[in-house]
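Can anyone check this?
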Amino acid sequence: MTRIEFLHDAPDRIAAAADWLRQAWQKRRPVLVYVPERQAAEQLDRLLWCQPATGFLPHCGAESSLAAETPIILAGTLEQLPHDRCLLNLGNELPPGFSRFEELVEIVSTADVDRLPARERFKFYRERGYAIDARSVAAGI
């Protein structure tokens, strides 16, 4: 069954995602980032190119020919996936087919536009018996 982690109270959802991805990369964890909003995907892409300041986090879009060998994949849809290990959800909807992943990470900001739909997803997961680890990241990831 998919393990679910809710990281809530992020001051900035995209910046928190970049911080979380940096930690995942340090552990060499492959991550598929579901980011259906184009503006959010572009913002995250820019952050991954310049953080940390001395380098970048290797990433590409799901449509790239390098997706199968790149550790961080940014995807606007979840149709063709190079792996099913870890899904980072940056959408406000239930990610389609999330249960095929070993792990699902939800990053939720303090903004109502993120927080309110996240409550519904949390309730959905809990009612179906998923193990959920929830923690505040207000002070950082």
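Reply from J.R.: I decoded it. The helical segments are 13-26, 38-50, 112-127.
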